[in-house]
Amino acid sequence: MARLETAVMTASETYTRNHAAQSERVETLRARIADVASGGRPDMVERHRKRGKLLVRERIDLLVDPGTAFMELSSLAAYGQYGGEVPGSGIVTGIGIVHGQPCVVIANDATVKGGSFYHETVQKHIRAQEIAAENRLPCLYLVDCGGAFLPEQD
Fold it and tell me: Where is the CoA carboxyltransferase N-terminal domain (predicted)?
């Protein structure tokens, strides 16, 4: 296969300016993803731990095959909504390898409003199921849920 060459001039002022702007955006994205990955409020995380429960990403880490990656999907769903109280829309979805088989994993984060469902939670859940169906992947559910968040229901 022939090698593709680039005409980008990395020493140009335009490149340097664009690279700096994009690098700043990438850092913002990484910070937001890290913020969401921390789960619910610290007091809810502590309550969860006192009950002897694993956090959602710990449960997923134990589920997927050791040494394999878990590709999280839609991690910024509901970002900036509900006063920042619903990181990741209260569920973690992604693709991981379980017993050698790629699977879609959908797991409630009980540190976020007791794992209750918001509108965005349902959308994220359905999108993960669509990805599973389109790719003929089994869907695994790790449920720790308080049901629908009734104040947000019509």
Answer: 22-154
